[in-house]
Design brief:
By secondary structure, the protein is an alpha+beta fold. 18% of the residues lie in helices and 19% in strands. A hairpin with a 6-residue loop joins strand 2 and strand 3.
């Protein structure tokens, strides 16, 4: 087999085009991407649903999601929720406007949510079992049953 080398045909770029716009650097300082904020809402009415919370916060900006905290094992609300808003400025406006406002006859407590600890386990977490089935179960020793009082005590006394 013959080893043929091919040369790539290169077309020179005209000087008038310059660099493509996608490769040019933006002028000025670079702004970090705004990921939004999570807002804590406390002292909610227990029957307040997600749509009602979205309605409260939609006046101040775009709502990404709402998470109402419920009792484990039931769907009963604990009275507080977390709202994720897409813009930090909108979240700050909502906090300023809704904190200490009376909604459904209750005074809302609205603030910026603290970061969640990743090490904490959820309520439904069950610890892993280290018993692989080969270990014997330890049986509890049965305590001797107490003798009935009455005639048995009298008979024991007479035997002695």
């Amino acid at each position: 087999m013959e080893n043929k080398r091919f040369k790539r045909a290169s077309t020179p770029r005209p000087q008038s085009l310059g660099k493509p716009k996608s490769f040019t650097k933006p002028k000025g300082p670079r702004k970090p991407h705004d990921r939004g904020k999570t807002v804590y809402i406390g002292n909610l009415r227990y029957k307040r649903d997600e749509k009602g919370i979205i309605y409260l916060f939609a006046k101040y900006g775009h709502v990404k999601s709402v998470e109402i905290v419920t009792e484990p094992g039931t769907d009963k609300s604990k009275g507080y929720a977390f709202v994720k808003m897409s813009n930090s400025d909108d979240a700050i406006k909502a906090i300023a406007a809704l904190n200490n406002q009376v909604v459904d006859g209750r005074t809302l407590k609205v603030s910026e949510a603290l970061e969640r600890d990743k090490d904490k386990r959820p309520y439904s977490y069950k610890a892993p079992s280290f018993n692989d089935g080969n270990e014997k179960k330890v049986e509890k020793k049965k305590k001797p049953s107490k003798r009935k009082k009455g005639l048995n005590v009298l008979f024991d006394y007479l035997k002695a």
